[in-house]
Amino acid sequence: MEKIVAGLLVLVGIIHLLPVSGVLGTERLSALYGVTLGDPNLVILMRHRAVLFGLLGLFMVYAAFKPWLQPLAFLAGFLSVVSFMAIAWSVGDYNEAIRKVVIADVVAVIALCIAGVLYVFSRNQS
Question: What is the signed CA dihedral for 116, 119, 121, 123, rounded to 10 degrees?
């Protein structure tokens, strides 16, 4: 069971690492999100967002192999994906690229829920 939990955390970590390439610049951000970024301030914010996702993704992968960190990884990952999905759904009318991000976040939520249940179940068995 511990290997399944670790594998699911790695999966969610990878989902969070995918946008890191956005740190490379405007062209990559445009490709990732299907948006035009003409304002340099928005480019700064989006590139910083890519860095933060990288940090969260790395933490989740690290936590996959450190069981004592896993509850924090579940919480951080869950807050990340649920907040994005809630914002996307509340705003609505998003493009195809953002729809793919929402789908990836749905996968991440499911993985985190399964991992969390397995984590609790395995701790109760001990």
Answer: -140
Q: Token pair for residue 86? A: 């809630």
Q: Which two tokens stand for residue 56?
A: 């969260």
Q: Which pLDDT belongs to residue 35? A: 94
Whether the Cβ atoms of residue 79 and residue 72 lie closer than 8 Å to each other: no
**SS (HEC) of the chain:** CHHHHHHHHHHHHHHHHHHHHHHHCHHHHHHHHCCCCCCHHHHHHHHHHHHHHHHHHHHHHHHHCCHHHHHHHHHHHHHHHHHHHHHHHHHCCCCHHHHHHHHHHHHHHHHHHHHHHHHHHHHHHC
Regions of the chain with pLDDT less than 50: none
Give the number of other Cβ atoms within 10 Å of residue 80's Cβ. Answer: 22
Question: What are the boundaries of each domain within the chain?
Answer: 2-125
Q: If we measure between CA atoms, which residue out of 116, 108, 57, 113 comes closest to residue 85?
A: 108
Task: Find out whether 94 and 103 touch, Cβ atoms under 8 Å.
Answer: no
